[in-house]
Every structure is written in structure tokens, then in C-alpha cells.
Amino acid sequence: MLGLLGFAIIGQVPSAAEAPRLVPAALVDVPNEDGLQTAVLAGGCFWGIQGVFQHVEGVVSATSGYAGGSAETATYEQTETGLTGHAEAVRIVFDPQKISYGTLLRIFFSAAHDPTQLDRQGPDIGPQYRSAIFPVNEQQAKVANRYIQQLDEAKAFNSAIATTVELGRPFYEAEGYHQDYMYNNPGQPYIAVLERPKIEALRRFFPTIYRAQPVLVAKTAG
């Protein structure tokens, strides 16, 4: 992550605009149906978003990648320029019999990132780190937009939510070395300081759906 350079230089991480907090459940949700479903979310570095959702019961897989731009620019090097339209995103495949789309969004807003920061997360700055939801259909888009409105009306955060809802944007899987990054690099300073606390927030806010052992790309792919 580009923000790691700043972290190394100044020796500290800028404080987030909003601290993690348990936000209300969505009043409108996608109906419970048979078969696996997919959600695509972006909220800063995809290492952290992937790591959080790998610890959620009902999630079958969580894969880091890019969404918002074209297939031709779906690489780490190009995305990091901030000029591709892509955001670092995570594709979450889940079982709606065990967890709903609305609950995934609740986790996203509560524990996975700060949705009030515009085009950044902490030291990571640029549109590639924006808070965004990429619905895979109109129903998800309706739920996402209504939930953002609900949270803003409830003043769940001190500032307005900056999360965008971007329908019809394909997801492209990231390079292999980005997959399971939090799990494979627990002692790396960026992970230890910025990303691991999100797992603790997940465990604290959602103890009944937190699982200690993450579902890894390496295992699901194998």
C-alpha cells in the first residue's frame, strides 16, 4: 500500500475521522433465497477488507481485486495510480441461509473501514481507496442506497457517509500475492497497526457470527 511509505517516514498513522462502532441493522434487506450470492465491497486497502470478511460465518470466500474500471487496467500497478477508476475491492461469496446481504453491509460500516472518509482510508489516499459498494443487481443497489440513507438519518456517524454505490461495475481478481495477505503477514507493521484491529472490532461487535479460523483463498481454490 502507498500509505505504508508515509507510515514508515513519519512513524505514526493519522487518526481515523471516525472510530469503529456498531451501527444499526439494515431495515431493508435482500430476501433470503437458496443458492450462494455475491457482494463486492471496497473500503481502503483490500488486505483489511478481505481479512475481516474471511472471519465471518456464512462467507464461503473473500477475494481481493479491483472494481470500477476496465479489464485492461485491472492490475495493482495501474490501479495505484488512481487514474483507472478502479477501487481496491473484495468479492464476497456468501450463503444467504447463514448471513444476509444487509448483515454484510452492517459489518462493512461497523468494523471494516471508516465510511466517512472521501477517497482515502487513514494514510492511504486516492480514489483507489474510496469507500464503495458495487451491487451485482438492482436489488442490492436498492438495499445499499436505503441503508446509507438510514444510517445518515440516524446520525450513526459524526460526519456524512461518503460511500458510493456503483452498479454494473465488474470485479477483477487481484494478483496472487495480494490474496490472504493479512493471514500470511500478521507481523507486518501495516497489518499489525492498521488492519488487525478490524478483526478485533468484528469479534467484539458480532460475536455470534465471528469465526476464529478464516476461510482462505488458498484453501477454497484448492
Automatic annotation (TrEMBL):
SUPFAM superfamilies according to UniProt: Peptide methionine sulfoxide reductase (SSF55068)
Q: Would the keyword Hydrolase be found if you checked this record's keyword annotation?
A: no
Q: Which Pfam families match?
A: PMSR
Job description of the protein: Has an important function as a repair enzyme for proteins that have been inactivated by oxidation. Catalyzes the reversible oxidation-reduction of methionine sulfoxide in proteins to methionine.
Q: Name one GO molecular function term.
A: peptide-methionine (S)-S-oxide reductase activity
User: Among its keywords, does the record have Transmembrane helix?
Assistant: no
Peptide methionine sulphoxide reductase MsrA domain boundaries: 38-190
Gene encoding the protein: msrA_1
- Spell out the family assignment given in the record's similarity comment: Belongs to the MsrA Met sulfoxide reductase family.
What residue intervals traverse the membrane?
Answer: none
Q: What is this protein called?
A: Peptide methionine sulfoxide reductase MsrA
Which EC number(s) does the record attach to this protein? 1.8.4.11
Name of the top EC class for this enzyme: oxidoreductase
Q: What is the lineage of its organism?
A: Bacteria, Pseudomonadati, Pseudomonadota, Alphaproteobacteria, Hyphomicrobiales
- The residues the entry assigns to the signal sequence are none
Its UniProt entry gives the catalysed reaction(s) as: [thioredoxin]-disulfide + L-methionine + H2O = L-methionine (S)-S-oxide + [thioredoxin]-dithiol; L-methionyl-[protein] + [thioredoxin]-disulfide + H2O = L-methionyl-(S)-S-oxide-[protein] + [thioredoxin]-dithiol
Organism this protein belongs to = Microvirga aerophila
Which positions are catalytic residues? 45
